[in-house]
Write a structure and sequence with these properties.
Elements: H1 12-22, H2 32-37, H3 39-44, E1 56-58, H4 85-99, E2 103-106, H5 113-130, E3 137-140, H6 147-154, E4 159-161, H7 172-175, H8 181-204, E5 214-221, H9 228-242, E6 246-251, E7 253-254, E8 267-268, H10 271-286, H11 291-294, H12 308-315, E9 322-323, H13 329-333, H14 340-350, H15 357-363, H16 367-370, E10 374-375, H17 388-395
Parallel strand pairs: 1-2, 2-3, 3-4, 4-5, 5-6, 9-10
Antiparallel strand pairs: 7-8
Helix pairs in contact: 4-5, 5-6, 6-8, 9-10
The structure holds iron/sulfur cluster.
Iron/sulfur cluster (SF4) binds next to loops.
Length: 405
């Protein structure tokens, strides 16, 4: 008789411990790892209030897919778990009440995309209808999930997300062999279509079904040797086509050879590249820059030693200096050292007073950084734009944490 090994299903506490380890393979808005990577950007390029910090919970780590970069891949020998919808719902609401943060339900693809999505819907139903949780709820959509299941998920969630991961469709066959462009972009299209359609219905009638109001995605940097030009062009296209609220960036790591990917190169994308991508992303989403302006094909990687707006300004010195008393809001936003808040303050101050050096200082503008790009009261106090090397030294910062505008 052959020996049959029956694996013991982990106890609830063991599942929680395993889940905490797996949560690092995905991104939730505001998560600690991400926050440390982009702490400089929060000070630097301002964005509107983001959703609340959301600790992520995983339904299961037992994935049928085998993505090279993921700790949950089926080709990896590790302990597996799956929570029941009720277990996960009660744990999530308990956590959300204790932390006063929202809930983010995610999962590996357990048995099939549709089966996992059904379990997620069941979890959301318990959270909303039985546990009466009314706070922020973000739910993951599985690649290739049925449109009807996506619709049912959106009836309970505030935000939905499906992760695109790679910046070029041919990358799936290299690092995520079970995924393809269609099983990611089709759900993304359904989500965006339903957000728009049901949003309009709600405007007309308060009895129309309430549906999620936003969607996000996650994109890895450095997974297939793509440049920042490619990543940012894709992000710009996703914002335009699917009206995404955010694209989250993460650094691709492949440090241990994975079954099925033995020939893949061992590599680790540095955190600074992700931080620069976040800065560039904000410039596209909030400052009106085009992806091609930030990372043109002729300069297709973001520099490490300078923020992307300063790098753009140095490539476009012919547009400067601008007169802070006359420049429009869009042009003020392009001045290194002047962000959303300062540009608005300058416009407001112009209604009442001339913009002098003292006024600029009172408004909080650092002339050290912006002085070479502006004139005020007909005066120029910067380094002449015919001395770009000196300007470059002034704007450079090797420590991304100290970056300003
Ligand atoms: S689909 Fe890929 S990335 Fe997602 S959990 Fe499964 S192996 Fe990981």
């Amino acid at each position: 008789m052959s020996n049959i090994i029956i694996r013991k299903e982990p106890e609830y506490d063991e599942k929680i411990a395993l889940m905490s380890a797996d949560a690092q393979f995905d991104i939730a808005e505001g998560e600690a790892r991400l926050a440390s990577e982009i702490s400089s950007i929060k000070r630097d390029i301002k964005s509107p209030a983001s959703p609340p910090k959301v600790p992520k919970v995983f339904l299961s780590n037992n994935c049928i897919f085998n993505c090279a970069y993921c700790g949950c891949r089926c080709g990896r020998d590790k302990e597996r778990y799956a929570f029941s919808p009720r277990e996960l719902a009660e744990m999530s609401v308990g956590q959300a009440k204790a932390s006063r943060h929202g809930i983010f339900i995610s999962s590996a693809i357990y048995k099939s995309a549709d089966y996992t999505q059904e379990l997620i819907i069941e979890t959301l139903k318990i959270i909303r209808n039985e546990l009466n949780y009314r706070g922020y709820l973000h739910a993951k959509v599985m690649p290739g999930a049925d449109p009807l299941l996506i619709y049912r998920t959106g009836l309970y969630a505030d935000r939905l997300s499906v992760n695109i991961e790679v910046a070029k469709s041919e990358g799936y066959s290299l690092i995520a062999k079970n995924k393809n462009k269609n099983n990611i972009l089709t759900p993304m299209g359904h989500i965006s279509g339903q957000i728009k359609a049901l949003g309009k219905e709600r405007e007309k009638s308060r009895f129309a079904p309430k549906f999620a109001t936003s969607q996000t995605t996650q994109l890895m940097a450095g997974s297939i040797g793509e440049d920042d030009h490619t990543i940012l062009r894709l992000a710009g296209a996703l914002y335009n086509k699917y009206d995404l609220a955010r694209v989250y960036y993460t650094a691709y790591h492949y440090e241990t050879p994975a079954k099925g990917y033995e020939n893949l190169e061992i590599t680790k994308t540095p955190a600074w590249r992700v931080a620069r991508l976040y800065q560039a992303d904000r410039l596209i989403k909030l400052y009106g820059f085009l992806p091609e302006e930030i990372a043109p094909s002729s300069n297709s990687y973001l520099p490490r030693d300078m923020d992307p707006k300063a790098a753009w300004a140095l490539r476009n010195l012919h547009l400067f200096p601008v007169d802070v008393e006359k420049a429009d809001y869009e042009m003020l936003l392009r001045v290194p050292g002047i962000g959303l808040t300062l540009a608005s303050r300058i416009l407001k101050a112009r209604r009442y007073t001339s913009i002098t050096e003292d006024v600029l200082r009172e408004l909080g503008v650092s002339l050290r950084r912006s002085g070479s790009f502006i004139t005020f009261g007909g005066r120029y106090k910067g380094i002449k734009s015919d001395n770009p090397e000196k300007l470059k030294v002034l704007l450079a910062n090797n420590n991304i944490e100290q970056s300003t505008h």
